[in-house]
Design brief:
By secondary structure, this protein is mainly alpha-helical. It has helices spanning 3-25, 42-60, 65-68, 71-79, 84-89, 94-111, 114-126, 130-145, 150-173, 177-180, 188-208, 217-230, 236-262, 273-284, 289-311, 327-340, 354-357, 362-380, 383-390, 399-413, 419-437, 442-451, 463-469, 476-509, and strands spanning 29-31, 37-39, 342-344, 349-350. Among the domains are: 1-81, no CATH class; 90-112 and 294-366, no CATH class.
């Protein structure tokens, strides 16, 4: 039995056992901020117990994390945490439909090869210089990851990176990766180029997901939690005010570390690189009807996601046609358009069909629902106030120190746990901490959410890392060394973004 299997088996028992022990160990009452005694009733006890149960199963992966996310439906009504109708409402939250529409759009991009065309167009623009090729592949990966799942993006970009490595190796030694049995470790220049490309794909897949709400599931968890808890809408455009600068700053830093510090190479240009890129682009041919239709719908969705707040006040003949638009509604409109637009009328082929759509990552949507149900229960049953009373020990801490600790904790926790489950567990706790420190909740919640997507050290940290490690060309020490540098860079960058971008935006919103 492997170590992960042992951990999972232990977690299966530990989850309900810890929940029961916590339920029994909680005090009968606690003192709130005003010094008033507040009773710890059954609903609060049961909610805290369920939080520990779900967190244990999520973090140990005792069962599939999607299965854990169904626990609220089974347990909340029985335990008196929340009625069934209130619990299941979280599984139909608008952010789930935003991701559903985004997933359909991403599948259309993949189905018709638009992602591959974007990748080779980028390589065509950057040329055959090795540093530029790494930058081009990372840039294309990050852009695609803003709209397509980072797993799918990495799965598509890794073969392109491998082709570039093969080309460089053939030009240098006359043999391919397969003929060499992997990257020749003694050839430092080729080895470092290969590591820059492969790890660049993994890192850019995660970094790109920070740019939009649909780029990474934790972003959606934050958006819905913030709206549900504080009644403040976080639109697609509002998220990009923070996510896009973070991505645009982090990506070149990751490239610089990759190519100049961690894996420098003296190979300046790949001989025959331009010809290979032209050849691969030529194989793609002109834009087919599926690509053109997908591109048009994609442009429609992005335009309205970004400019919806500005358009909502526009009136035509006394009517405001865009006032009722929502990010989720736009996503579903785009998805429905893809089902309706024909590619080949005679054969009945549309841009997207249901046999393609059933391959959507439905489990992610269930995971959203479970996290949101848990968050709703913590708010409804006074758990946030109780956690806040426990957090009063942080009241003397400088806010900056707490922010750095939260960011670092989220980054390194994410190396071993699902970032979506992690965010779903931690947001209610951090929301309770914010009033104790007398800071806007977003000053803790938003950096924590971003930090959860910055796991770069371990193959299990995020699917792109696993895909790259699965090639067999990147060794664990190499990934851990490079990932540690990226993690530390991410902690510093997110801290800077918190005070240079997030804090000013919060002040402007007051």
């Amino acid at each position: 039995m492997t170590l992960p299997q042992k951990v999972a088996r232990a977690g299966l028992v530990a989850g309900p056992l810890l929940a029961l022990l916590l339920y029994l160990a909680l005090p009968a009452a606690y003192l709130d901020a005003a010094g008033k005694s507040v009773a710890v009733g059954h609903a609060m006890r049961a909610t805290l117990a369920m939080m520990v149960w779900m967190a244990t199963w999520w973090m140990t992966e005792a069962v599939e994390i999607e299965v854990t996310s169904l626990l609220p439906i089974a347990a909340f009504p029985v335990l008196g945490v929340m009625p069934l109708g209130v619990t299941t409402a979280s599984y139909g939250a608008d952010v789930i439909y935003l991701f559903l529409g985004g997933f359909v759009l991403a599948m259309a991009i993949q189905r018709w090869g638009l992602d591959r065309r974007i990748a080779f167009l980028t390589l065509h623009l950057v040329g055959a210089r090795t540093s530029a090729i790494v930058a081009g592949i990372m840039g294309a990966t990050a852009f695609l990851s803003m709209w397509v799942s980072n797993t799918a993006t990495a799965a598509m970009m890794v073969p392109i990176a491998l082709s570039v490595i093969d080309l460089a190796l053939v030009r240098r030694t006359g043999g391919t990766l397969q003929e060499h049995g992997g990257i020749p470790q003694e050839d430092v220049d080729v080895r470092n180029l290969a590591l820059s490309l492969l790890l660049g794909v993994a890192y850019a897949s995660s970094i790109g997901g920070l740019g939009t709400i649909i780029g990474s599931p934790p972003n959606g968890i934050f958006v819905r939690f913030y709206e549900q808890t504080y009644g403040v809408e976080v639109s697609f455009a509002k998220w990009m005010l923070v996510g896009l600068p973070t991505m645009l700053l982090f990506l070149p830093l990751a490239w610089l570390l990759n190519t100049r510090v961690l894996f420098p190479t003296r190979l300046r240009e790949i001989e025959g690189g331009r010809a290979w890129i032209r050849s691969e682009r030529a194989k793609l041919g002109p834009l087919n009807r599926g690509e053109r239709a997908t591109l048009a719908v994609f442009a429609f969705a992005v335009f309205f996601w970004i400019f919806r707040p500005a358009l909502s006040g526009l009136t035509l003949a006394g009517v405001a046609p865009f006032a009722k638009f929502s990010d989720a509604g736009i996503a579903v409109m785009a998805a429905m358009a893809l089902f309706l637009i024909p590619v080949d009328r005679a054969k009945g082929v549309h841009v997207i069909d249901w046999p393609t759509a059933v391959k959507l990552p439905w489990g992610v949507l269930i995971l959203f629902g479970g996290g949101l149900a848990l968050a709703a229960a913590t708010e409804a049953n006074g758990v946030a106030q109780y956690i806040g009373s426990l957090a009063r020990g942080f009241s003397g801490w400088p806010v900056a120190a707490v922010v750095v600790v939260v960011i670092a904790l989220m980054v390194f926790m994410s190396e071993l746990t699902s970032n979506t489950a992690q965010v779903a567990t931690m947001l209610p706790i951090l929301a309770a901490l914010a009033p104790v420190l007398d800071v806007p909740p977003a000053l803790l919640l938003l950096p924590a959410t971003i930090a959860a997507s910055c796991a770069f050290m371990m193959p299990v940290g995020t699917p792109p890392n696993a895909i790259v490690f699965g090639t067999g060309l990147v060794r664990m020490p190499q990934m851990m060394k490079a990932g540690l540098w990226l993690n530390l860079t991410g902690i510093l960058l997110i801290t800077g973004i918190t005070y240079l971008v997030i804090a000013p935006l919060l002040l402007a919103a007051r």
